[in-house]
Amino acid sequence: MEFLHIDKYLAAINSDPEFTIAARYWNSTLKFIMGESVCMVVIKDGRLCAIDPNPGLMNDWDFDFYISAPKDEWKKLLDPVPKPFYQAVLPAAIYHGFSFGGDFETFCAYYRALSRMIEIMRYHTADQVEDNSYGQI
Question: Can you list the residues of the chain whose pLDDT is less than 50?
C-alpha cells in the first residue's frame, strides 16, 4: 500500500461516524494483497489500529480474511469516481480480477464497514492527497 498515506487514512477512518457504526464490535485482521505487495490491517473493537504495509513472512499468516487483486485493479477500485463494478469488493470480484476468502461470516457481517474503508481510502491515496481536488473525508 505504498500509494496510501497511512497516518492520514488512520485518522480519517477512526473519526468517521459511518465507519464507527458499521464496525462496532469488529475484531479482525485483514490481508490485502495488491499485486506483489501484502498489507495487514488490524481492527480492534471497531477501530482501525494498525496497518502493516510490509508484514514479515510469519506475520502475514494470521488473518481472518483476505482481498486480492493485481495492483492495476486496486488502482481502478480506488479511483475517486470508480468505473462500473469497481465501486465495491463484491462486484469487483464478480466482474474484475479481485478475489477474497477466509472467514466469510465476518466478511459478510462487516461488509459495510469494509466498503466504507475502501470509500475513505479513495481520498487518501498519494494522488488524491497531493491533488486535494476531492476534498477531505
Answer: 129-137
